[in-house]
Structures are given as structure tokens and as C-alpha cells.
Amino acid sequence: MTRLVDGMVALEPRRSSRVGPAEDQGRRPAPHEKHSRAAARTLAGGGSVVVAGPPGVGKTHLLGDALRRAGASGVVTVTGTDVRVGEPLRALSPLLGARRADEPTSVVAGRLADALGARAPGAPRILRAEDAHLLDDGTADVLAWAARQGDLQVAVSMRTQGLSREPWAGLWRDGVVERVDLAPFTRDEVEERLVELLQAPVATDVVHRLAAESGGNAFHLDELVRAERASGALHLHDGVWLRAAGGTVPSTRMLDLVAGDLARLDAGARDALEVLSLVEAVPLRAFLEVVSQDALATLLRHGLVDTETGPGVAGGHEVTVRTQAMYAQAVRGQIPSARRRELLGRLDTPSIDDDPAALVASVTLALNSGLTVSVERIRSATDAAFVLKKQHAVVQLSTAAIEDAKGGGASGRAMVELLLQRAEASRSMGRAAAAARDVRDALDELEKAEELTDDDLATYLRGAALESGIHHYELGLGEALRRLDAASAALVRRLGPRRYRAAAEVLESTRLTRRGWDGDPSALEPAVLLLEGTQNPQRALSLVAPTILALGHAGRVAEGLGLARRYAPIGAAHTDLYRWAVGEIGVAAFFVALNAGVVPAEPSDYDDPAAAVGSGSTRDPLDPVAVHVRRGLIAAARGSWRTAAADFHAASASFGVVDLGGLLSFTLAAGARACAAAGESVAARSALDRLSRTRLRAARSLEPDIRLLCVDALAWLRDPALDAELQDLAAWARARGAARVELEALHRRVVLSADTAKILGLDAVVARCHELGGIVEGARATALVAHVVAVTTGDEALREISVRGLGTVGLWLPTPSPAVALTQREREVAALAAGGLSSKAIAERLTLSVRTVDSHLSRVFAKTGVHSRQELARALR
User: Fold this and answer.
1) How many Å apart are CA 841 and CA 849, to the nearest integer?
2) Banded pLDDT at 87 (limits 50, 70, 90)
3) Nearest by Cα to 243 from 186, 200, 203, 215
4) For the chain, first and last CA: distance in Å?
5) Are strands 2-5 and 8-11 parallel, antiparallel or unpaired?
6) What is the DSSP string of 606-644?
7) CA distances to 137, 140, 163 from 166, in Å
8) Which of 74, 299, 343, 795 could cysteine-pair with 305, CB 3.0–4.6 Å?
9) How far are the Cα atoms of 460, 602, 703, 728, 821 from residue 742, in angstroms, in the given order?
10) Spatial distance between the Cα atoms of 51 and 38, rounded to a whole number of angstroms
């Protein structure tokens, strides 16, 4: 390939390639690969291509890959960055040589085509133009004319806005060139790219943050990964890539890029870029209050900033101007401290403060630069940081405000709020001791006050709830309740009877919350009565999620989901009282619905967890790691065991570092089942062993599920102790009123027994299953009872139908080991086929082609000596 570099022609080595689906078989297609193949087909067929998109999304890489796939050789490259004002056709001058100023475009185009033909006789005449939006009008007209006449092929990359101008708009509108629009990576594509770069699974919270910081920009994403691996911020833990908190140091390539960009800008555009670098993203209306429209237009033309339209803070839609995180950091590094303080002063406006991200960024930098910021503005910034899930920023901002308050800059009550904010953030980062100190200091401050106003009382109750939660996790339920009793005694001494009665209801709600998370079955009915009868539902938000889970275990599905639908909007409206409500309620409702047999379609990684219960909010601070749990559960319910195992392993790695709710026990149990079902018996045993050494902490509310997952893992492992474990689980669940789990355990006893007729008291077991089927709500309970009936009556046709019914409600049972050895993938495909799924459905669930699924099935049929799926289902039983 030939490239024009500083007026010289450089020849790159020729490469041959062919276009076709056989290329790169056996791996998942990389992001944008389908676009590359489409462009290659066009070029191989003699057509022209224009690749358009925002800066950094990989246009140059895609164009080069497409030319390689098309087998193009002798390609000459020109670039719009070589253009200089007053020198028309400069980019083409090495090819055209001397020319007259008045030469018609058609003549120049003919000479260009001849020059290309002379360089590579017999080869297609292809001219590649990078950054074509920067080419002068004369050069653009020449290329367009030559392409229209068929004198040569053009392979062009440009910014999206360049396609709206002639002659480029006319070329794709008239079908002369094939247009390929390249968008930034989606979050799914970011994950694919990260796995490709890092060669190991990546935690979902890391994917989420890198996607946000890079904006899906391929170049910036690669530079972020390179810089964070070098600094150690990205590190491998238990086979999963995690990310430590803190900023990223820009790479050398990024610093060089920024230096060159700044040198090309005029004073107004440089000023605008420096302003934007301080906040990274800002609403357009606010940005234009501090910079000129001409400066913004220059930045957009050079591709240094981008705009996007999304939901506005106050509703409706709003245009945001943004630049990428690492790029902005590199620009900030070029700004002298005095100049930075001057720019930050310009950003201290109501319009900037209306945007959460801009507020957090500007206040943080102002404090770091030694500027004075009001306590009220810092508190607003900490609230915004919570919404943005930037807990380290909350700690940094609140610490600065606390120091200012100690110096007399704020009232004692303001100090209390700041201490509680810092405590919440510290707790969410796993710093329990620091959180406990801050909460105790806040409560002591309020207890010293001469009087408690209604606002003070609400703050005190919130602090007491937070303190009990911290101690529950660290020291157990007894210490949590003791702390609440101490708070109650302190309020009895301070408040009159009327005010104490109102406070007592909130304290009782908090006690029930702690007992609920501890899995105390006797707390369920009082909790339901309180939630249904309270006149102040916003004060009972923390009680909702553990109550929903307990109702699900009891089989009272409609009641639990009804609570979720009622309280989710209340939680969204009262994040000032309990900011975690929306996320907790959404997750609890998801658990209950899934266990009732409601299996969602293929999950989106970043679905709002509370969407199904109508909260109307997507701004809850749910731990992104919970996405792994949700995705893993759905994969397991769809029989995609290897996908489920990978997600649970990633979640366990993250929870092994910070585990606020004790979910590590759950993900270990779920991972053990998935590994066992996928044929990874060593990994399954390892997870069960680790689980035996892990404290349940405040997640005893999930103990019924954890126990059930463990016995299901033993079933897949064909453990000889299975029947005894199932009997124990059934008895334990019955004693606790966990009807759903009791039904699941009794179902496994009947259908997984080597000889059902030898089960002691079989008639009583079956009768109890029927009784529980009338108690436990949902399609899954109905399917379980139907399967028990089919197995115990010996009706083979009914049994096959009931097995397929189990698959539709998310239950896939182990099958006896076949007489022949199957691979892990063959076993996975065989189980799904025996469950009634078509090859197409299996392919979608396992991310395989239909041809691959059929190939696996053919080998399974041959090994087992069967000729149909029905025969396979019987053989596997």
C-alpha cells in the first residue's frame, strides 16, 4: 500500500486476503467486524466506500482492514491533515506534479487516475483518503468526479458531519459510494473489546466505568486499558479483571496527541477545550454561557469534542457537549494552576451546577486547586456523586467540607449530614470501621444538641439505621439490635410521648429490616402489617426488599410483587431518606419473579433493575456487580451453564473484595451449581468448599436459596449424600415456613431418586407436594407438581411433556450419566435438546451457530445410539 507522507510516496508491503466467512473462524466476531466485511465486499467488487463516524471509533483501522480483506494492493493514501490554507490540491501534489491553476476538475481527475494506474499497472486504481472532511474543496471535487466516472475507486474516512456537505453527500445519496456509519462501541461491544485486549473475563462494574469514561471510543478505550494496566489500577483477581479506585494517568501517546491538538487551535477554541476539560461533559446551554459558538464549532470540526442528546436533569431532552476522560485529563495537565483557578471561577454558575457530573468535576477540581467552595455547594456535589456511583468522590468532597465545618464554616447540623454522607460512601467501599466512626460522631453531635427539630429527628433515625446496618454486617444481628435499643433509649429521654410514637414506628421498621435481612421468619408478618398500614411509607423503605424476599420464600408471589410495585415509586421519590431503595426493591422483585417461573428474554447487562416494578427511575446507586448476578441467574434459567458459571465467578471475585450485603455466599452457591451442570466438577467442589468457610453475614435472608443451590449442585455432581441433604432441606424449609423451597426439595427427592418406589413415605411426600402446589404461587410450582405426578405415575408421554414444562420455567435437571462419555459442550446441548428446545433456540442460548449445534447433536446421537430428540430424552433419563 502506498502512503503520501510529507510529500513523499511510501510503499507499504503488499498483503493478499480474501473476503469470506471462513476467515477468523472459531472466535467471536470483534466489534465492527461486520462493517469491515461489508466494506471489503464493496471494494472487492470494484465499488467505492466512505466510512463515517465520530473521532476515535476506529474508522482508519476498519478501512485498512477492509482493504486487506479485499486483497487491495498498490493503494495510495492521502490525508486531510496535510491540507494548508491557500494551497489547493496540496494533498494530491505528489501524484499530479506540475499543473495549471485553471485546469478543469475533469482534467485533474483524469491525470490522477492515470498516475495511479502507472504506479500499479493492472491493479485496481484505489485512492484512500483519511480525514477527508478536512480536504480542501478542490481535492474533494477531484476525488468525487473520478469516482463518479469510474476512473478510480475511493476508500474514504471522515467525521460524520463531513457527509452532510458536498460533494460527499451527493456521492452516497446517488449510490456512487457505499456508506458505512461507524458508531462508538455499545457497552456489550466494550466488553467484547476488553476481553479481547485482556484475554480474561472483566467485572461488569469495570466494563460500565470504562465504557462511560471512553464514551465507547475505540482509541480512548485502548489507551485507558494500556494506562491502567501500567499503573496497576486494572489488576487480575481470581481470574477476573477488577479496577482499583482513583484517577488514570494519561498515556504518552495521549499526551502527544493533546499537545498537537492544542498547537493547532486558535485562542478561542483552546480556551473552550480547556474549560470543557475541567468537567468533561456539560449541557450545551451551560457551555455556551462561558464559551463562544465559534469556538465550539471549531472543536466540533476538528473532532475534539462531541455532542449527544439524552434525558435532561429536569426532564425532556438535552444536548450535552463532552470529551473523553483521559483526553480531558491530558488537557488539564497542560493548564497552569493560576489559569485553572481562573477557569474554575467561570464554571461556578447555576447552569453548571444543574448537571450532576459537571458539578462533581468542577467542585472536586476547585477544592484540589485551593479555591474556597461553600459547604452547600459541596453537599450538592456529594449528592450528585452518589447518583453517579462515584463513592470515592463522595468521601473526598465530604472530607473537604467537614474540615471546613470544623473551622467554623458550617453549623453542627451541616456537619452531621456530611458525616453521614461520608459514612454511607465509606461503607459502600468496604470501609466499615471508618463508616462506623463517622456515624457515631454524627449521632453524638445530635445527642448533644439542646433540642431536636423534626429534621434533626429524621436525620438521627437515618443515622441509627445506618449504624445498625454496619454492625449487623460486621458483628451480627444481636449487636445491630443493641444499637437500635440504645438509640431508642436516647430518644425516650429527649422526646415527648407524641413525637416518640412517630419515631418508635421508624425504629421498629429498622428492627424488622435487620431481622428480615437476618432471615428471621417470625419477622415476616409484623413487617407485612407495618408496610401495609403505615401512614409514612417513605420511612419504611429499607424494610421492603427483605420482606419481598421472605414473601417469595413463602410462595406469596403476588403479595411480594405488589409491595414492589407500590414502594418502588416511593423509593424513587425519596432518595434523600434511603438512596438504595430502588435498586434493592428491583433486585428482590427480580428474584421472586424468576423463582416463580418468569424467565426474562436474553438480558441486557444494563437494564434498570427496577424497571419491572415501575419506579420510573434509572438513577439508583445499585452496585453494578449485581448485574453479573442477574445475568448469571437468567443464563442458568435458560440452561446456558457455562455463561452462568462465568458470570457467577466474576461476581464472586468482585464480592471477594467488597461485599456489602453478604452476596458472596449466594454467588458461590450459584456458581457451584453452574459449574457442576457444565461438567466442571473440580470448580464446583472448590466453590462449595469456599462457601463452607464463608460467613453468611447479613444475607441470611437468602439462606433458603443458598441451601437449594447447594443441593442442586450436589445433584449435578451425583453426590451420594444428595437424598439425605434433600430430606434435611425439606424439613428445615418447612420449619421456617419457606413453602417454595420445601416444594423444590421434595420435588428433587422424587424425580432424582434412582428408584422412586423405594422412597420411604412416598405417598405422603407426593401428597405434601400437592398441598404445597396449592400454597406456592406461580408457573414454576405448577410445573414442579406436574413433574412429580408424571414421574410417580410412570407415564412416559406425560413425563416428557412435564420435562419440557420445567425448561419453560427455568429449571434444568441433571440426567443420569450416559454409558458413553460426552464432552461438556455435548452434554450441555444434549440437556437442552432433551428439554424440548430446537436447534435454533439452543444456538441462541449458547451463542453458537445452528450448524454447530446440529453437529454436536449428531455426535451425541451417534454416541448414545438414538435417532431423535425424544429417544435422547429417554436415554438421558
Assistant:
1) 10
2) low
3) 203
4) 61
5) antiparallel
6) T--TTGGGT---------TTHHHHHHHHHHHHTT-HHHH
7) 9, 9, 8
8) 299
9) 41, 29, 13, 10, 34
10) 11
452: left (phi over 0), alpha (psi -120 to 50) or beta: beta
Helix (H) or strand (E) holding 283, with range, is strand 281-283
Cell numbers representing residue 115 in the block: 498516475
Among 60, 32, 43, 83, CA closest to 130:
60
Residue 13 has pLDDT above 90, yes or no: no
Helices (H) and strands (E) in the chain, counts: 42, 12
This prediction's pTM: 0.76
Residues 6+ apart with CB under 8 A from 455: 413
534 CB burial (10 A radius; 0-12, 13-18, 19+):
middle
Please state, in angstroms and as integers, the Cα–Cα distance from residue 309 to each residue in 111, 218, 314, 320, following that order: 45, 20, 14, 6
Hey, how many other C-beta atoms are within 10 angstroms of the C-beta on 731?
A: 12
Element (H, E) at 8: strand 8-11
What does DSSP assign to residue 318?
Answer: E
Segment 190-212 mean pLDDT:
85
Size (the chain), residues: 877
Q: Using alpha carbons, select from 561, 552, 600, 836 the residue that is nearest to residue 708.
A: 552
Quote the strand ranges of 25-183, DSSP E: 48-52, 76-79, 126-130, 153-158, 177-181
CA trace torsion 823, 824, 827, 833 (10° rounding) = -120
Nearest to 510 by CA among 460, 458, 464: 464
Q: Which of 185, 187, 191, 195 is nearest to 219 (CA)?
A: 185
What value, to the nearest 5°, has the Cα angle with vertex 572 and ends 568 and 574? 115
| Element at 462 (helix H, strand E) | helix 454-475
